[in-house]
Amino acid sequence: MDTHKASWFPSTPLARRIGGWAAAAALGLGAPGALAADAPDPHAQCRHAAPEAARRSAPYTVPDVELVRDDGKAVRLRQELDDGRPVVLSFIFTSCTTVCPVITATLAQLQRKLGPARDHVHLVSISIDPEFDTPERLREYASKFGAGPGWQHYGGTLAASLATQRAFDVYRGDKMNHAPATLVRTAPGSEWVRIDGFATADQLLAELPTLHASR
């Protein structure tokens, strides 16, 4: 079986509902630009059936590892995240057909809701399958979801990815056990806010109060 295309969800009604939405997203039916910033949440049905996202604060330390950005440049993660902007961080892999398209589509919706302020927030997606997710594949994935200049995707070595996953407590032993989680930090040195489960774009926007107030 091709593990790059396998789904880790069991065959349940919720799984089929999430998987069906993810397939629609992958086909571009929920493509960025197709919805206005205030359009209904395309994940609403999926979220209604899923457990409510859980929010908590955590004092994570960004590991000083080298990752490879989707433009092919090798960068230090700590330096990338400490550029002064708020950070919204997710973990994905490009061949995922379940959780990752939903998380990524949420960031795309957040990007649209930010409007002119979108480049003042650093959206970060880090691959948990970097051996497959080359910069080219990451660029294709980013393009499919309409990623703007303030949204970068990162790969690199497996060791660097694992160190980053462990630092943010998202490592689950295997990519097929990947669970949805999004992390937000308003400024370097601040604590991280962690949302386990499928956060909405509005929930993420509410974690960026200064930018939210300026819209």
Can you put this structure into words, describing what you see?
This protein is an alpha+beta fold and 215 residues long. The protein has one domain: Glutaredoxin, CATH 3.40.30. Helix content is 34%, strand content 18%. The protein is built from 8 helices and 8 strands, in the order ααβββαβαβαβαββαα. Strands 1-8-7-4-5-6-2-3 form an 8-stranded mixed sheet, sandwiched between helices. Helix 5 links the parallel strand 5 and strand 6. The radius of gyration is 16 Å and the shape is globular. The chain starts with 12 loop residues before the first helix and ends with a helix. The N terminus is likely disordered.
Summarize the helices and strands and which ones pair or pack:
Elements: H1 13-26, H2 44-49, E1 54-58, E2 66-69, E3 74-76, H3 77-81, E4 87-92, H4 99-114, E5 122-127, H5 135-144, E6 151-155, H6 158-167, E7 181-185, E8 192-196, H7 201-206, H8 209-214
Parallel strand pairs: 4-5, 5-6
Antiparallel strand pairs: 1-8, 2-3, 2-6, 4-7, 7-8
- Largest beta sheet: what is the strand line-up? 1-8-7-4-5-6-2-3
Q: Which fold name corresponds to the CATH topology?
A: Glutaredoxin
Q: What would CATH call the architecture?
A: 3-Layer(aba) Sandwich
Describe the biggest sheet?
Answer: 8 strands, mixed
What CATH first level would be assigned? Answer: Alpha Beta
CA distance, first residue to last residue: 47 Å
Poorly predicted sequence stretches spanning 5 or more consecutive residues = 1-50
The beta-strand count equals 8
Radius of gyration: 16 Å
Percent of residues in beta strands? Answer: 15-25%
